User: Fold this.
Amino acid sequence: QVQLVESGGGLVQPGGSLRLSCVASGFTIDRYHIGWYRQAPGKEREGVACVSVSDGSTHYTDSVKSRFIVSRDNAKNMVSLSLQMNSLKPEDTAVYYCNTSPPMNYWGKGTLVTVSS
Assistant:
């Protein structure tokens, strides 16, 4: 059974930091690229960052480059994925999800990040 469980969201002031976590399990996760996505109010879901399964290289959307850091830790039958978010901006406000890259049809509940003073 596929499980994607995100955590770590919350309310933070502009310029602050948060660390998101995700545990992915229930499928052969170590064969997939995996990453973070977000959906802001009234907008479509977008990819934010991902980690390659082949060489561990990371990729970021332009708006978060130099501010966010994605990392993964493989274990037997599961993967822990994190997203360190620094210098947060109000436009980073969104529900954040983890998923494979490209994403599966299944999505977890996500975790809400609100950047506001």
